[in-house]
Design goal:
By secondary structure, the protein is of the alpha/beta class. The chain has two domains: 4-65 and 322-427, Aspartate Aminotransferase, domain 1 (Alpha-Beta Complex), CATH 3.90.1150.10; 71-320, 3-Layer(aba) Sandwich (Aspartate Aminotransferase, domain 2), CATH 3.40.640.10. Helices cover 38% and strands 15% of the residues. It is built from 14 helices and 16 strands. The protein has a seven-stranded mixed beta sheet, with helices on both faces. It has a four-stranded mixed beta sheet with strand order 1-2-3-15. Bound molecules: pyridoxal-5'-phosphate. The site of pyridoxal-5'-phosphate has 15 residues, from helix 4. The modification N6-(pyridoxal phosphate)lysine is found at residue 267.
């Protein structure tokens, strides 16, 4: 496969943008080599600037659950463009998207639209603090909630101690108000709430982690977060930026039957355009300006194009209910990966929830970041490039879940499994 044009464009990009990219996840830092520069996407496929075709398992990191260039989304966007692209004033489409979110996401009574997942989580934790009058936010290591200062925090040396910054530019003062716990660790959660019964404003978490590879919650873990938040008066913030409209129409909260106080959304809710949203209990949402006093604003929030794409995506999901099919196809892929790894004698484990899947290069189940950190990431990098050469575009990191869209066919899955067989066998050479 030749990628001469990709190489040339990226060489220029490196002079123009830090690292040549506008977001580090796409820079291929975790797999080595240079990112591929794309020209267009259609259905389950991406086409690079050199004319190579790939089956896409990133889906823009989640949003493209209907596949690229879905006719309904395309038509909605064309119609919206012809009416003007931004007014900074109320539009009816904002009601349309808000109504769909409130209808589909079980716990959401009121919602505020923002422009990214990061904005949604940042605003939700501010609201949790404003609502409770408390300072501390609890998060779990290996969970990602966007680049919010106070969430770019790693665990301190002892468990359940104050967080420490994990990026230059995040001050120790900011990090101090974040407490980091291991994911799926119920005992650590119990202990923390006992130690700080009155200090915790909220707990933010991924209900199925997608940002250390796919890591499902263990039985009882989500229930325990709910129980403690209720008992101690902390706000339960379910970060469904990735899982919302992905693992089920109503997100992970519907799949697991857990009702959070606040939910953050992004990715699919914008259908491939920049949107985020946060919503939940009306009595908490009522504290947001101008109904209440917690400040949060946005010049482009509720943008006509983004709401048009979001409405078209959610409506199509509602009308077509692709979830059983997505689940079945992803299961086939998971089983294909397992069989291929066994045949090639490469130690791996898989984890899957609906159409989120990860093939971990590790020989034990991954339940938390300490487990995930033991994966053979160099081997994943080799596997990634072997798959690229066979026309399959997987996440460019061991620590990202792959996604299947409604546009992926059985033939795409079969082809991908065949590619995986050859790629895993090639790792042994
Ligand atoms: C992607 C993601 C975010 C951040 O969303 P952006 O739109 O990239 O700012 C937050 N939380 C989770 C769980 C995510 O997967």
């Amino acid at each position: 496969m030749s990628r001469t044009k990709s190489h040339e464009i990226f060489a220029r990009a490196k002079h123009l943008m830090p690292g040549g990219v506008n977001s580090p996840a796409r820079a291929f830092g975790a797999v080595g080599g240079e990112p591929i520069v794309f020209e267009r996407g259609e259905g389950a496929y991406l086409f690079d600037v050199d004319g190579n075709q790939y089956i896409d398992y990133i889906g823009s990191w989640g949003p493209m659950i209907l596949g690229h260039l879905h006719p309904a989304v395309r038509e909605a966007l064309h119609a919206a463009v012809d009416q003007g692209t931004s007014f900074g004033a109320p539009t009816e489409r904002e009601n349309g998207l808000a109504e769909l979110i409130i209808e589909l996401v079980p716990s959401v009574e009121q919602v505020r639209l923002v422009n990214s997942g990061t904005e949604a989580t940042m605003s939700a934790i501010r609201l949790a603090r404003g609502f409770t009058g408390r300072n501390k936010i609890v998060k779990f290591s290996g969970n990602y909630h966007g680049h919010v200062d106070s969430l770019l925090v790693a665990a301190g040396s002892a468990a359940a101690t104050l967080g420490v910054p994990n990026s230059p530019g995040v001050t120790p003062g900011t990090a101090e108000d974040t407490i980091v716990l291991p994911y799926n660790d119920i005992a650590a959660l119990d202990q923390l709430f006992e130690q700080h019964p009155d200090a915790i404003a909220g707990v933010i978490f991924e209900p199925v982690v997608g940002n250390m590879g796919c890591v499902p919650p263990m039985p009882g873990f989500l229930e325990k977060i709910r129980e403690h938040c209720t008992h101690y008066g902390a706000v339960m913030i379910m970060d469904e930026v990735m899982t919302g409209f992905r693992v089920a129409m109503g997100g992970a909260q519907q799949l697991y039957g857990i009702t959070p106080d606040l939910t953050t959304l992004g990715k699919i809710v914008g259908g491939g355009l920049p949107i985020g949203a946060y919503g939940g209990r009306a009595d908490i949402m009522g504290h947001i300006l101008p109904a209440g006093e917690v400040f949060q604003a946005g010049t482009l929030s509720g943008n006509p194009l983004a709401t048009a794409a979001g409405i078209a995506t959610l409506k199509t999901l509602k009308e077509t209910d692709p979830y059983p099919k997505l689940d079945a196809r992803t299961k086939t892929l998971e089983e294909g990966f397992k069989a291929a790894a066994a045949e090639a004698d490469v130690p791996t484990v898989t984890a899957r929830v609906g159409s989120m899947l990860t093939l971990f290069f590790h020989n034990e189940p991954v339940r938390c970041w300490d487990d995930a950190a033991k994966c053979d990431t160099a081997r994943y990098g080799k596997f990634f490039w072997e798959m690229i050469e066979r026309g399959v575009y997987l996440p460019c990191s061991q620590y990202e879940a792959l996604f299947i869209s409604a546009a992926h066919t059985d033939a795409d899955i079969t082809k991908t499994i065949e590619a995986a067989k050859q790629s895993l066998a090639a790792l042994k050479k």
